[in-house]
Amino acid sequence: MPGLTAPSNYSQEPPRHPSLRINAKEPFNAEPPRSALISSYVTPVDFFYKRNHGPIPIVDDISRYSVFVRGLVEYPKELFMADIRKLPKYEVTATLQCAGNRRTAMSKTKTVKGVGWDVSAIGNAVWGGVKLSDVLELVGVPNLTTTTSSGGKHVEFVSVDKCKEENGGPYKASIPLIQASNPEADVLLAYEMNGEALNRDHGYPLRVVVPGVIGARSVKWLESINIIAEECQGFFMQKDYKMFPPSVNWENINWSSRRPQMDFPVQCVICSLEDVDVVKEQKITISGYAVSGGGRGIERVDISIDGGKTWVEASRYQKPGMPYIADDISCDKWAWVFFEARVEIPKNTEIVAKAVDTSANVQPERVEVIWNLRGINNTSWHQVQVLVGHSSL
After folding, report:
1. SS3 of 15, please?
2. Taking the model in full, what pTM does it have?
3. N or C: which end of the chain has fewer CB within 10 A?
4. DSSP per position, 288-347
């Protein structure tokens, strides 16, 4: 593509914050300390997890950068950044989460394949850009279209990013056309993150943001948008990011038997404590994040200080001082919710958190029942061990 290239090696990587936990160097995959996540409702760009499949693309000439919108549409177009910026700008606060968040904990049950994420492969940002539904109107696709006159039912996003899983080809993914053409779904072509231009790690100059859906569908470094009849046939749609039962292994797996993962399930994580932690006082504040996919709000977060025998309900908020009310117009429907509970704990205990969303979906108790060979969607109860007194660790 003119103006944007994918390097063949990792010699021109951007700078990153030194506090990030690096899970893979090439390609670079890293997450912040869990305590950093709850320090700010909007995650600073430096502390937003980095998920990459190859060397970071480089913009050679922004004036020549363009995106092709084509396929089963009436009026295919090439859009330059100047064209995109002429469309109405929207800001959407949305949480992105890698489907592999908390994979490391799942791997303790049985080995899984994938980047070893702890609990911070997630972040919440204010994304600025244009609605995909407005872009689709430019090529003759009205809002809320299920199928184009030429038979297009899916919208495929193709990146400049080259990856080994695609045999050196581009990263790509798709979403249904009805979602892409729905203004209420808030799917963006984003050129800003937290009020500033995207940086290279997060997709500069243009990326897709699909709120409420696993991060793998929010394609960075966008090259083209294709309206197609079937869902994307790329590796990350057909041979990855699918949820299999615990009985499936690498010998009996049948990828075509499962649909690609889209909405992420209800999730919550304690961020004020490490997996094993020592506290000085018996009265402590437990805090963390909760989130659910598909725009579903968080109905409640339950905290147990005795390993799940008894429970108390935590308070919930998005902005400090403003009570969070699920599905209320004043709250960000695509964003995470912070929770907090002040509790008195015994000397040594297991603290547990579980969230319930507005559809009454609740996190499963045990990771064993949702174990899958790719280690995705670990939404089991989050548990930490707490000791009161001086550390002997």
Report:
1. coil
2. 0.97
3. C
4. EEEE-STT--EEEEEEESSTTSS-EEPEEESSTTSB--TT-TTS-TTS-EEEEEEEE--S
- Neighbour-count burial for 39-55, b at 16+ CB within 10 Å, e otherwise: eebbbebbbbbbbbbbb
Q: What values do phi and psi take at 257, rounded to 5?
A: -80, -5
Do the Cβ atoms of 370 and 378 come closer than 8 Å? yes
- Beta-sheet strands, E only, within 138-282: 154-162, 170-176, 188-193, 196-197, 207-209, 222-228, 267-270, 276-279
Distance, CA of 334 to CA of 213 (rounded, Å)? 10
DSSP string, 119-177: S-SEEEEEEEEEEHHHHHHHTT--TT-SS-TT---EEEEEEEEE-GGGTT-EEEEEEEH
Mind listing the pLDDT tens digit of every residue in the chain (393 residues)? 568 999 999 999 999 999 999 999 999 999 999 999 999 999 999 999 999 999 999 999 999 999 999 999 999 999 999 999 999 999 999 999 999 999 999 999 999 999 999 999 999 999 999 999 999 999 999 999 999 999 999 999 999 999 999 999 999 999 999 999 999 999 999 999 999 999 999 999 999 999 999 999 999 999 999 999 999 999 999 999 999 999 999 999 999 999 999 999 999 999 999 999 999 999 999 999 999 999 999 999 999 999 999 999 999 999 888 889 998 999 999 999 999 999 999 889 999 999 999 999 999 999 999 999 999 999 999 999 999 986 555
Tokens of 357: 């969303």
Please give the Cα distance from 133 to 220 (Å, whole number): 18
DSSP 60: S
Number of C-beta neighbours around residue 343 at 10 A: 16
Cα 65 to Cα 51: distance, rounded to the nearest angstrom: 23
